[in-house]
Amino acid sequence: METDTRTKQILKVMYVLTWIAFIGLMIETGAILVSYVVSCFNPGAAKNLYKNLNLQELRAFSLGQYTMSVSFVLAISGMKAFVLFLVIKALSKVNLANPFTSEVARLLEKISYILLEIWIIVVLNNEHAGWLLKRTGITSESRSAEEFIFMAGLVFIISQIFKRGVEMQSENDLTV
């Protein structure tokens, strides 16, 4: 019984922390978007786009390449926020009396696919940054992609375990 209440407390804390992280990522995504729009009208604003991200040289070189670089950053930030939104939904659906539900399994699988999509976008961003550096000598932000493919695989495995748990639970319900 004590474990049950401790688990409930941990899930509640995780739920609150996930909300905080989600709100933070939404603010970050909005700030990047607003900074980009401002920098389109005021090229000097590209010097400190967000968190000291300096794309002024790229903005001066080509608005199209600058837009592409900012689009990658914006997409990654927005998709990470969406992943946290799905985690919030999954945490709100968890019932400790009956933990394996098809809805939670489906949400976990969806999270894994979105993490895979983030990995693809990060890889494209890094290729674009490498191309820019080689072609123009201008550096753009590159990111580490490995953690996204690792998380995608891990969450996918957990979603498959949840699917099997749902199957076993329904089989158990039928035999009782």
Helix content: over 70%
Summed up, the helix count is 5
Strand content: under 5%
Question: Could you give the distance between the termini?
Answer: 24 Å
Shape: elongated
Structural class: mainly alpha
The overall pLDDT average reads 89
Please describe the biggest sheet, giving its number of strands, its sense, and whether it closes into a barrel. Answer: none
Rg, Å, rounded: 21 Å
Elements, N to C (H/E): HHHHH
Spans of at least 5 consecutive residues with low confidence = none
**DSSP E strands, number:** 0
Report on the structure:
By secondary structure, the protein is an all-alpha fold. 81% of the residues lie in helices and 0% in strands. The chain contains five helices and no strands. Helix 1 runs antiparallel to helix 3. It starts with a helix and ends with a helix. The model has no long low-confidence stretch (mean pLDDT 89).
